[in-house]
Structures are given as C-alpha cells and as structure tokens.
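#struct-queue
[09:14] JT: dropping the first one here, sequence first, then the structure tokens:
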Amino acid sequence: SYFDIAGEKPVFRHSRMPKSFIELFLYNSLYLFVKEASSTPVNLESWLKDYSAYSYNQTVIQKLNQAFKNKNTNTEFKYFHLLMPHSPYTFGSEFPYADLTVDNYAKYWQFTNEKLLAILKNAGPEKYRIIVTGDHGYIGDSINPHNTFGAFYGFDKADVDRVSTVQDIGLLIRKYLIGR
C-alpha cells in the first residue's frame, strides 16, 4: 500500500507519497497544485518533470531486482507496484520527459515492458510464480482504457484459465500460498 493501514507501514514510501487516506485523496486532486501555485507560481510541465514518480519507480525496480536475488521460501509473497506507464512519461536519462500524447504513451509503454522483461529474464521466471498486471490502459482519445493485460508465470494453466477478474487473482495467490 502507499500509506499506513492498521498500524502497518509499507515496505517503501517515498517522502512525497501520502501517509493517510486523506493525504491520498488530496494528492489525487488539484489541491497540491493550487497550494504550490498560491505560494509560488508553478509551471505545470516543470512540476511534472520533477514529480517523484521517477524516484519511486527507480526504487521499486531496484527492490524488484533485489527480491529475485534474495528469494527465501516457496511461500513468500511480494507485491510491487510501478507507476509506469502512467504520466509523467519519464525515467530519468533513460527515458527523458515526454509530453502526454498517445504516441509518447506507446513509447513509454514499450520502454516499461522492455525494463520489466529484462528483470524477469534475469530472475529466471521458471523459479518463481510471477503475476504481472496492468490496472488500465491509456485514458484519453479514442482508446478503450479498459484494455489491459495479465501475465502469469509458474502457475498451472487450468488455474490461470479461471482468472477472469482482478478479484480472481487474489484467489490464485491464496491457493498457491496456503493451498486452498
């Protein structure tokens, strides 16, 4: 999770990530932009370039690589959430900031896929059970944002075939972690 739930702290939280549901709500509104604009004029493009998503994504990718190197048991479960290919479309010098267009989304989507595939290939996916999902596709223009995907490594095909909704993924995880 991004914020504390029932006293549990997330494994990683960037300093600019929300610490509560109220902060999360404000974070996803124009509140921060208005707050910053009221004290100092803010250039939206500049603000997006400096947005902490890059450092967050960089840290998650580092922790993902670490997790594959430090696997301890067959019943270990780790969850990683990237803010990719969400805007802002940037990953430091590897993917310099790009405007919010369909073409740039497609390029950032491809970059994200290449980055994840390299991690998975280095990890040796045959040694793990891995689920890769998208939460939605591109939002805007004439593209259907409900087009997304799921990839499952290390699971029986019959079990994967039963997955038809996001909620079913939880049942799949439960079956393989605790056997029911």
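[09:21] JT: and here's the second one, same format:
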Amino acid sequence: MVVSGIKLLASLDHEPVPGRELTFRIEALEPELVLKDITPPPSSATEPGLLLAGIAAARTRFERHLPRFAPPPCPPLDLTAARRLFHAWLAGDTTARADFSAVQELFRLARTFVPRAEGRPRYLPWVFPGLTQAEALTARLSPEEGGPGFRLRLFGHLPNLGPIAVEASHHPTTREAPARTVYRLMLERPQEAADCMAMLVDLRFGKAVLAPACLSAGALPAPLAAGFLARIVAATSRPFTGLRLRV
C-alpha cells in the first residue's frame, strides 16, 4: 500500500473492505517499513451486514419457543398484560430466556448503527398475538413532529397476513387537545387490512384505553419488505479514519 507517497509493506489475513479502519503493528523499520495487520476480525459489533445476519439467526432461534407462549386474547389488545405474561413465561423457561437475551444483545448493538433521530431499536415479540420476526423503533416526538409524545414503528410477520408495518404516534393530553393515538398500516396483503384494524380498535396500556385512529391502510412499500431496521443499518457508513499503527 502507499500512504502519503510512502510505500508500506503489510501482510493481510483477510480481504480489505473499502472504508473499514485497519490496525497495524510495525514489524520492521529497516531496510523497509513492514507492517502486520492486527485488525480485530469483523463482528456484529463492527459490520452492519453481520449484525443484520446475526439478528435474523438469533431471532429465528428464539421464536421457535414462541408456540409455548400463550398471549392474552385479543381484542382487547392489552400491552401491559401481554408484556407481563411474556416475561412470566420467560422466567420459567431457561432456554427461551437465554435465546431471548441473545436477541436483546444484538438489538442493543444495533443502536450504534441507528441514528438517534430514527429511534431506539427494540425487540418486542409480545406486542401482537402471533407476531414473528418482530422489530421496533421507538422515539420521543420532536416539536416538528407535533411533540410532546411518542413514536413507534413496528414491523413483523403475522399468520395469514404476512409482512406488516405500523407507524404510530401517541400525543398526550394538553390544554389545547385531548390525548390521541394515530397510526398508518402497511401490509403485503392490503386487502386484509380490515381484519388487522379490527384488532387495533381496543388498545390498552395499563388503565389507559388508547382507541387509536387509522390514518391510512395500504400496501407495504418495497423498501420496507425486510423491515425498518435492515434499511437503516444497511445504509450505515462509517467514516474512514485512516491507519492505526502500533510499535
């Protein structure tokens, strides 16, 4: 390689990837400068592609346990009750709990790749009966988005409905207006939207009855066919910061 006009000799144990930072140790100064590559191997913590593959594999492994979880009947869709039952079930199943923790750790790593404005990646398999390949992004609403309030983007697969995405926001009560929850629904099979909307009519969070209003229901856009997270993480580019040399 050539850096600032200086020819450097280095042995690489892997194929270099454009934009990736490499770490080298100086092996010799005379008669030529010789470097040894000591870059840590790629992992889910450093490579977006490996992270997405890791999430898919770990999530599939955990979701093999889900048929043993009995969510509360829907409607009403009671998020507090569903979460409580889910964690009570996990507490009694050591293997499922370990596999769930592995998925949670990968979603934690995903936060390093997802811009804060996009939201916080979460794995919430309990939010909808039968939901698999679930992923969510949660965030506080900015003033430009009509805040205060919260935003949720949820993606997953439902039996008989296929891939589904929901973009929802909750606006708490203010002096000017009562609390309101609204959402947009996108499905691979938009003709089934009515069935899905029926399950969302009675939505509860603890003692609060949210009664969300559907702003629109239609086809799932092609860019969201693999979910929100894949599109955001795959677009992540880390700036090249040069070489790190260790004597």
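[09:30] RK: nice, looked through the second one.
[09:31] RK: The mean pLDDT is 85.
[09:31] JT: good to know. The CA atoms of residues 9 and 34 lie 5 Å apart.
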